[in-house]
Amino acid sequence: MERLIEDIYRTQSRRVLATLIRLLGDFDRAEEALHDAFAAAARTWPRDGVPANPFGWLVSAGRFRAIDHIRRRSRFDVSVKDIEDSLYGSFDETEIGDVELIEDDMLRLIFTCCHPAIPSDAQMAMALREICGLTTEEIAHAFLVPAPTVAQRIVRAKNKIRSAKIPYEVPERDELPERLDRVLHVIYLVFNEGYSASSGDEIVRADLTSEAIRLARLLAGLLPHPDVSGLLALLLLQDSRRAARRSPGGGLILLANQDRSLWDHEKVREGLGRLDGAMRNGEVGIYTLQAAIAAEHARAEAPEKTDWRSIVGYYDLLLSAHSSPIAELNRAVAVAMVEGPEKGLQLVDAILQAGELEHYHLAHSARADLLRRLGRKEAAIAAYEAALRLCQQAPEQAFLRNRISELSGAAQR
Hints:
Layout: H1 2-24, H2 27-48, H3 54-74, H4 80-89, H5 99-113, H6 120-130, H7 136-143, H8 147-163, H9 176-195, H10 206-222, H11 226-239, H12 265-280, H13 286-299, H14 308-321, H15 325-339, H16 341-354, H17 361-373, H18 377-390, H19 394-412
Helix pairs in contact: 1-2, 1-3, 1-5, 2-3, 3-4, 6-8, 6-9, 7-8, 9-10, 9-11, 10-11, 11-12, 11-13, 12-13, 13-14, 14-15, 15-16, 16-17, 17-18, 18-19
């Protein structure tokens, strides 16, 4: 039962939170209610059994516990009485069964986190906290900033939402375009955290990748736009490889070694179709360019048939539109496939020397792989060890240790 509750927390807690925020009107109150609801589930479900609708049970339990807390406070603070009355008056049991209303709650949460009144760095931190459920430490690692800085950003964002009375809603259609870039970026971050979890024992968090795709579809219905189509294409093409990215034992399998028959070819077909639509409609955005790169991998029947020159060209376009050290790193890897590992190593070394990716484990891992391909075993081991010190995901750590072990054995022979 404990494992089942943990699974439900992992897969449904963010949606429960989003609905509780709508019902309770406050982020902190909703987060407290969420934890109270799961604590109640841990006490009662082993005795009474799992309810037919765990989501509805958790929302109801969280809401009523929040009201109980407020009622106790209202005995000492008359001003809290109005909050209690408003919560009783705002609830309709049928809302818990309203699938469309519940699904919109996640979009409401994203648009609230991305309100223009909130600074952009706080928007991203809050979105990862509230939508992905990442800890402050995990967000700090992702942004390469101290954990207290992330915590302060989140507190400031919540205070701004409260003081400015930012509405918990999806904006009207005419307001959507000006908010689009931030919302797309949040959905992209949600997917990335699911596609390659920043920490933990799993390579993929399918609940997050699936939620990101679902949200992108909802957004496409609200606002048909080439950038939305481009993002959805990217997510579908990337997620199509999910089943092939891990071994039966949970180990990491690199793209070049994946069994491509395990790819979800229906997602590939849909992703390519969405990409074609995005490329034909207006200016090509950064997500469309990334989808075009993913499409080159999807079209290749085997790793050696990948059109790496086209991929380098797409990265050139991407970098001209949006400078990014991670995109530069990925381009360097693609250049190595076209011009050889020595050229790729020169580019990766220059990126690391610039400093922005000094604490990014995949930069050191890419450097290690290029050194390995050049036969420079000792230097490759040192680079893999640097990547291992920075990596927080168990399957990636195991992969890096295996590489170090293989090279150490080869070096001794």
